[in-house]
Amino acid sequence: MLALAGLFSVAFLAATFLPAQSEILLTAMLVAERYPVPALVGIATLGNVLGSTLNWWLGLNLARFEGRRWFPVSREQAARAEGWYHRWGRWSLLLSWAPFIGDPLTFVAGVLRERLSVFLLFVTVAKLGRYLLVVWATASWSGA
């Protein structure tokens, strides 16, 4: 049970601006074959979506502090994410799984006041898809 809580925690942190790699832990847990795959995917997805939701909430409530040294998104990251968001709209949230742009995109979605229900739909699809790809790649690599 502690391992599942660890997976949830790492997946949550990986979706925030803190450095963490949930794919590595998920892969190790898949290879160990101690837990059902749907449970691992569900827990990782839930943690990762909730971490992204924290970014959305921060964007919604902390945008007024932009420019401060402690602010979690640099102006360059925000500008890049805003560009993606303005060009592709909410569809850009399907890239919320991507390194370097995913976290700022979820933050910008909050800044731009994307509806939570829409945000959750797109981000959940993206995060679940990424973890299913990890499962497929691990199974292919390990021969399972």
Provide the fold topology.
Blueprint: H1 2-14, H2 22-32, H3 37-62, H4 75-88, H5 102-111, H6 116-142
Describe this structure in a few short sentences.
The chain is mainly alpha-helical and 144 residues long.
Structure overview:
The protein has 144 residues and is mainly alpha-helical. It has one domain. 70% of the residues lie in helices and 0% in strands. The protein has six helices and no strands. α2 (22-32) packs across α6 (116-142). It is elongated.
Describe the structure using short key phrases.
144 residues; mainly alpha; 70% helix
> Can you tell me the number of structural domains?
1
Quaternary structure of the protein: single chain
Strand content: under 5%
SSE topology string: HHHHHH
